[in-house]
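FAQ: What does the model actually see?

It sees only this:
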Amino acid sequence: MFKLSVFYPNTPGAKFDMDYYIGTHMPLVQSRVGAVCTGTGADSGLAGGAPGAPAAFIAIGHVYFDDVEAFQAAFAPHAAEVVGDLVNFTNVEPTMQFSAVR
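And it is asked to produce this:
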């Protein structure tokens, strides 16, 4: 299994609408990649590792799938639409990472 994680940094002035993300953005991603997507998840940053430290990320989103190439092929035609939706829920630039889930 593989996942695409999208990290939204917790920077000064960062805004993130988790309700929109879960209720609209993630379903948009799922609908565009179809059956290639085997699941999604979202983390809301609470705190850093040290007592009183802020979370490094305001949110982290995850999309799970079985085949990297199939996901990329399904996502590519919709990338502009999905990326264009970011302005509706955040004002930060995310970082993405593909990972093998073990």
